Amino acid sequence: MITRILTAKEAAAMTRETLEEELMAQIERISTAISRAASNGKYEIDLHEYLDTPIREYLQNQGYTLRDWREYNDEYVTINWRNS
Asked: Residue 2 carries which DSSP code?
């Protein structure tokens, strides 16, 4: 019996959809963290995660400043809106 596999076009479409869902979930988490910090009178948040280029560009286009930093072998990013 021959098993049907995805065509390359189907696999590419599935990959794009998955990546878009992951990016939207990451933006949702960041948005929640920003709202929580702003409601507590803060002007920045530190995230212990890597931000993909589309998310970085989205945040920068929204007026946020991003600063990457490392502690030991861990990567962090500070998202700041003080000067906005």
From this structure: P
DSSP one-letter code for 40: T
What is the C-alpha to C-alpha distance for residues 10 and 39, in angstroms, rounded to an integer?
A: 43
pLDDT at 68 over 90: yes
Contacts of 66 (CB under 8 A, 6+ apart): 51, 56, 59, 60, 77, 78, 79, 80
Which pTM value belongs to this model?
Answer: 0.80
Instruction: Return d(Cα 23, Cα 57) in angstroms, integer.
Output: 12
What CATH number matches the domain at 8-80, 1.10.150, 3.30.1370, 1.10.287, 3.90.79? Answer: 3.30.1370
